[in-house]
Design goal:
- The structure is a homodimer.
- Chain A is α/β, with parallel strands linked by helices.
- Helices cover about 45% and strands about 15% of the residues of chain A.
- The first copy, chain A, is built from 11 helices and 8 strands.
- A 4-stranded parallel β-sheet of chain A has the order 2-1-3-4, with helices on both faces. A 4-stranded parallel β-sheet of chain A has the order 6-5-7-8, with helices on both faces.
- In chain A, strand 5, helix 7 and strand 6 form a beta-alpha-beta unit.
- In chain A, helix 2 packs parallel to helix 3 and helix 6 runs antiparallel to helix 7.
- The mean pLDDT of chain A is about 90.
- At the A-B interface, helix 1, helix 4, helix 6, helix 7 and helix 11 of A face helix 1, helix 4, helix 6, helix 7 and helix 11 of B.
Amino acid sequence: MKRTAFFISDGTGITAETLGNSLLSQFKAIEFERVTLPYIDSVEKAHNAADRINAAAEKSGKPAIVFDTIVNGDIRRIIDSANALKIDIFGAFLAPLEAELQVESSYSVGTSHSSATSSSYIARIDAVNFALDNDDGARTRQYAEADIILVGVSRSGKTPTCLYLAMQFGIKAANYPLTEEDMDDLKIPVSLEKYRHKLFGLTIDPDRLAAIRNERRANSRYASLKQCYHEIDEVEMLYQRENIPFISTTDKSIEEISTRIMVETQLERRLRN
Amino acid sequence: MKRTAFFISDGTGITAETLGNSLLSQFKAIEFERVTLPYIDSVEKAHNAADRINAAAEKSGKPAIVFDTIVNGDIRRIIDSANALKIDIFGAFLAPLEAELQVESSYSVGTSHSSATSSSYIARIDAVNFALDNDDGARTRQYAEADIILVGVSRSGKTPTCLYLAMQFGIKAANYPLTEEDMDDLKIPVSLEKYRHKLFGLTIDPDRLAAIRNERRANSRYASLKQCYHEIDEVEMLYQRENIPFISTTDKSIEEISTRIMVETQLERRLRN
């Protein structure tokens, strides 16, 4: 039995979606069709959204589930009229917050969401550019500016982690590959010696690494189990010998890897989302 | 009067943080100190968290605000004992969802969050790699595989938008710069002709563009107001003449730009967060 869940907002819908997905993930027995409807900011769009909700409810023979962060009263009432269980995120929590803080929220007074500030936009773009410029050991002369330098073997997750750290936290993250040639006599590369306090290692289960590498270069030596086991052995020994903190990326999402790195390093975020 | 808000989770804390920040942004009159405590997954960590909450409450002379998505009962009770207004995200919404869906949630039965699936991890990494490989017109031979190709002048936001589309939605986004040399006789570049149905334009307020470019290359011709006005004039005329859909990135966050592009193009997401 499939149910349809809607995430509806007059903005990007990211809050409704993030919360809604977290809640739905607590119901593993049920399969959900998910529909995000961002920028529902007019009466006309609200009627269209309500029509879609009603159509989904009719199709499945059960009310839809609606997670929303709509502020405008006219739009809310239209969405409310549709055949759905409504999870009214702002409605539920703003009243106790108003009571505690002893001020009215802009929800109550009817204004809309805030937008990104210019300073956080620039911090984020700077960090993304830094990650791109300093990807895969391309340069090392900006390492003085880096908040962190990720090291690890090829395909252990360095690049996406650097980009996520930049995008989500505004952290300037460089990364440097520990390559095949270095493997038999693995030391901290000379260009990193000066920045060893910024190093953070990634590791990964060798079988998983081989699977990932095989998608890129099937049946190569690079992707062989033997090679992957060898490389991972060597880097993990290096991390331990040199006291480089490290984390396994196996079975972790990029969010998890990045958040755990933030916790372990106690790096301070440069931006708030 | 500064209040301290905590975002607490046994996972990454992203849900608590996203929802909490949305709610707090409705109270513009109050300044909040924000603390995220992820991976609070043991009684010991819970006691440390409670101590931090109590210290913050004592310092400001007012209870702290706690947004949490803790599942484990023992841990919850420790957090609950601290001096704070508790916004219990799962507690508030899972009961009505359970009633509607007529099953118990894993919250109620005490198991923990789900992790990223392998297929969504791979879709995301593939999309991020695609964005990196196809950044700034570096290659054009993979454009057949692209879901979308962003075009725009230098520093109009193409790269971060492509990366966000990849990271958040698993969308394969290439980008191609409309460069200064082409400006006086601006046409769709030959290498893009075949893919014109995939093109999506970015534009930006020329004054804002000049400010951004000045941070990179101060007082250059490239960053001059005259040049920025000229380039933006030319690209906007091109978009209109060639019926390329486009969006202004001025004063928009990367999330907003990306979400609006998803709405306009009706691209289907390749992953769900």
